[in-house]
Write a structure and sequence with these properties.
The complex is a heterodimer of chains A (about 150) and B (about 475). Chain A has three helices and eight strands. Chain A is α+β, with helices and mostly antiparallel strands and about 150 residues long. Chain B contains 14 helices and 19 strands. Classes of the chains: A alpha+beta (about 150), B alpha+beta (about 475).
């Protein structure tokens, strides 16, 4: 069984925030790439409990876009696509970024409805509230609203 | 909502006059309580819509309007292609042609109650619901292409239903001018095993009882009487529509500067109707609408099959099928002149009044049925369009209750099992693969649908015909 790569010393963090009928997802990290990893966690957490996902399978994702915000849109939608077509849930992420390209890995396992109790199916990322920002030195956030 | 700057036109109509770069006024239909509860973002988003090129008459918000992306949910706006009008992927939304289909069963409540539990179990087994639960149909790309062109008509041709079903579906079950070639391979890949699936979130299939008749004449025309058992299906175009929304939203955001369109919000991404991108989106959107119609048709077939074993005396016919996330080319009277417009209804239902030629002949005297979904455990309504709706909002009405609480808050407040048990005590059986999903959809997380339909009627948009109460709810 493949194993995920070693994690960064500082783990990416994630949180949800409220938006009417849908869910705001936010990733926080020491770098923008880590914030992108965090938003992957927030995406999955909208569906199921992250603790229930074994890193049994790896999916590689490559995106290109004119800028980092567009890359965020592409990254979240690429994860939505992989979840939808391969019926996988992802619990760990690794992202490498340039200004216009993203290489990522997502680790997870096949959806087991009884065990994972998926609350919603994510339709896609939206541009609503989509932003990336550097806060206090060394703290990056990436966020957007997802349609569920 | 902050009501400052709004002019109250009547008890249920509020107007924001066009100022600055607004091309037309913004009009909201709601009573003062609904207005007070409405998010300020609805106002902000509606005003943004008035700034889009080619908008005609006004941007409208229905009584159930709430904060959406770009357009408010419950938003209506019409654009004239000859005046530089646009089509907006954000103005349709991700769940293209999401809608409601209601089926008559010919059964009365006393016939149904003895098999209520058995029906809940059977429908739960037969109707694929929830994330990752594929349908019984595994289509090839060629077969899906046919479905995207043929809609419910394709499904009936494949044996999923009866020819007479088509007479009670918008556009007789098939949206013309669909362009499957404008649908991406990714969108195809997301749909190959999703035709005939319910999805998740607020989508559902319910067995309902007619609890109250509000308008006898219209109810008679719709063949609805107190204690009748009906089935309502709320779902859309599944992964295909979601991916088309994603693809074209991105393409329109990137193309907008080239069209000289300044977007007040990226989510309002749009393209001129008379442009290649605009036409390609319309072709793909119509393909997704056909996908949704085929989807609801296959689900109808599954319902028929389930009822056949448990209640062989049931005769299942389509009452009506209406989409509430779509852009449609329609002719409307604007200042006495008929104009061909592209009407966006995002979380809003078309509601043609009596006599409109698009309404099936058997219903034309009373107007087009408007099917309003409640939330799990709460009432749904059947309305009909009113003639006055044409001048009020291009013949449009509300679509549902709208949330009053976010999913995150709801999941913290309620346990799914507790919600299921409480509803069972009230005689409503819930079947869902996800208890967290049930908690997020708890009835108390939604606004009162009664207030919304009362406001729609008072505003002259659509008339109440019947109130439906759930007996069985299959949730994704």
């Amino acid at each position: 069984m493949p194993q995920p790569r070693a994690r960064n010393p500082a783990e990416p963090r994630w949180e949800h925030y409220s938006h009417g009928a849908d869910v705001g997802i936010r990733g926080i990290g020491a770098s923008l790439a880590q914030a992108f990893e965090g938003i992957g966690l927030a995406l999955t957490a909208a569906v199921t409990d992250l603790a229930n996902i074994a890193p049994a399978q790896r999916v590689e994702i490559h995106c290109a876009a004119p800028g980092p915000e567009d890359l965020l849109y592409e990254w979240v939608n690429a994860l939505v696509y992989e979840m939808a077509t391969k019926h996988l849930l992802f619990g760990q992420f690794k992202v490498q970024l340039t200004d216009s390209e993203l290489s990522g890995e997502a680790w997870g396992e096949p959806l087991d409805t009884a065990r994972h109790q998926p609350a919603v199916e994510v339709k896609g990322a939206t541009y609503t509230d989509l932003s990336i920002a550097e806060g206090p030195p060394g703290t990056w956030t990436a966020q957007c609203i997802i349609d569920v | 909502m902050d009501l400052q700057g709004l002019q109250r036109v009547s008890a249920t109509e509020w107007q924001i006059p066009a100022t600055g770069d607004m091309r037309v006024p913004a009009v909201l239909y709601a009573d003062s309580d609904l207005m007070a509860d409405m998010d300020n973002k609805v106002r902000e988003q509606l005003v943004n819509v008035t700034r889009l090129p080619g908008i005609v008459r006004a941007a409208y918000a229905m009584p159930d309007a709430h904060w959406g992306y770009g357009f408010p949910i419950g938003g209506v706006a019409a654009f004239d292609p000859e005046a530089g009008g646009i089509v907006s992927a954000g103005g349709v939304g991700f769940d293209i042609s999401c809608g409601v289909r209601t089926l008559l069963t010919g059964l009365k409540r006393p016939q149904f109650l003895p098999v209520q539990h058995a029906t809940a179990n059977e429908l739960s087994r037969a109707i694929p619901a929830g994330m990752g639960r594929g349908g019984r149909l595994q289509l090839s790309v060629e077969e899906l292409t046919d479905a995207l062109t043929g809609g419910a008509r394709w499904a009936v041709d494949q044996g999923y239903g009866e020819a007479q079903d088509l007479q009670r579906i918008e556009e007789e079950g098939q949206i013309l001018h669909a362009k499957p070639a404008c649908v991406s391979p990714r969108a195809f890949a997301r749909q190959l095993n999703e035709v005939g699936t319910l999805g998740s979130g607020n989508h559902y299939l319910e067995v309902q009882v007619v609890a109250e008749i509000h308008h006898e004449k219209a109810a008679t025309a719709l063949e609805l009487a107190r204690d009748d058992i009906v089935v309502s299906i709320h779902c859309g175009s599944r992964g295909l529509g979601h991916q088309i929304g994603t693809d074209y939203l991105r393409d329109m955001v990137r193309a907008a500067p080239g069209f000289g369109i300044r977007l007040p919000d990226r989510e309002l991404a749009c393209a001129p109707i008379n442009s290649d991108l605009g036409q390609n989106y319309l072709g793909a959107m119509r393909a997704a609408a056909n996908c949704a119609l085929a989807n609801r048709q296959v689900l109808t077939h599954l319902v028929r099959h389930s009822f056949r074993t448990l209640l062989p005396e049931a005769v299942i016919r389509v009452l009506y099928d209406v989409s509430h996330n779509i852009c449609k080319e329609e002719t409307h009277d604007v200042d006495g002149v008929p104009r061909r417009l592209f009407v966006h209804r995002k979380g809003a239902t078309r509601a043609f009044g009596p006599g409109h030629p698009a309404v099936p002949a058997s219903l034309r005297a009373v107007g087009q049925p408007v099917l309003i979904g409640g939330s799990m455990g709460t009432a749904s309504f059947v309305l009909v369009g009113m003639e006055s709706g044409e001048a009020r909002a291009f013949s449009s009405a509300c679509h549902g209750a709208g949330r009053s609480m976010s999913r995150t808050q709801a999941a913290k407040r309620w346990q799914g099992r507790q919600v299921v048990a409480q509803l069972a005590e009230r005689g409503i059986l819930i079947r869902s693969p996800s208890m967290r999903g049930v908690a997020e959809e708890a009835p108390e997380a939604y606004k009162s649908v009664e207030r919304v339909v009362d406001a729609a009627e008072a505003a002259g948009l659509a008339r109440k015909v019947a109130r439906l109460e759930p007996l069985v709810c299959i949730k994704g």
